[in-house]
Amino acid sequence: MNGLELSKAYYREYGEPMLREQFSELLPFLALGLCGAGSECFGFDDDASRDHDFEPGFCIFLPGEDVVDRRSAFLLERAYAKLPKEYGGASRSLMRPVGGARRGVLRIGDFFTEKIGSPDGVLTVGQWLSLPGQALAEATNGEIWADGYGLITRIRESLSVYPDDIRRKKLAGHLLLAAQAGQYNYRRCLVHGEEAAAQLAAFEFVKNAMAAVFLLNSQYIPYYKWSFRALRALPKLAIEAELFEYLLTTGNGEDAAGEKYDVIEGICADLIDELIEQDLTKANCGDLEKHAYSVNDGVADGEIRNLHILAAAQ
Known about the structure:
A hairpin with a 2-residue loop joins β3 and β4 (about 90). The chain has 13 helices and 6 strands. The chain starts with a helix and ends in an 8-residue tail after the last helix. α7 (about 165-190) packs antiparallel against α11 and α7 (about 165-190) packs antiparallel against α12 (about 290-295). By secondary structure, the protein is α+β, with helices and mostly antiparallel strands. Helix content is about 55%, strand content about 5%.
């Protein structure tokens, strides 16, 4: 079983009975589940993932101290620590992973502050524009199995997708960077005899075109090492994963360069088709840069629209 399944089974066998027997009065205020950092929270873990931070365990999410006081939190922590240390062939670590606790008793406000800088999930325009997708992915991934109080579920739902203007602004920036790197700079680097620079251009194209694909799916792009895994599971444009991989793993010699440029143009055409399908562009051409500016023109909020087109393209 993968890490999420392991954690849920461990909770059902040991965590849930402990909470019902010892903390029945607190159950209406607790949320139980697994989310946050780690491949297991995305369902991306495999046998190789067990070399670090892989353990049976789950999260007990608490609202503020005005609802669940410090003493109750302390007693929950102590009871959680007494749960079995081994389960399903995995052992609970005695050391905290890099970045702090990922399991056990966590305040909801602390969890979201650590992930997105806001304890209640309310974000300013500036925060929406500047937060990397992986932070929002970690705030909304995994599973919540029980939520008597409903707070963490409400916050996660409010963060589940970008607001439309934010999505358009981010999409416009990534499309522009993809166009400049792929349709323009890749060939120019080769004309100058700079194969290494051409590969950097190919990398920048893939990085930004991939970000655009996730935005066109209204999903957050996760940490880069899981991005291809997540891309292959998207409902739209998942086929681009193979083409992106080709661009990153092949050279830029005379024989390959022409084919790679054709692949870049093909990806741009696919992106443009999807932009048209979603009515995100009014441009009518194969120049991805013109579509980027058209997407930006579609931002409803004037202040956001008038920000630099790359304001949100992290």
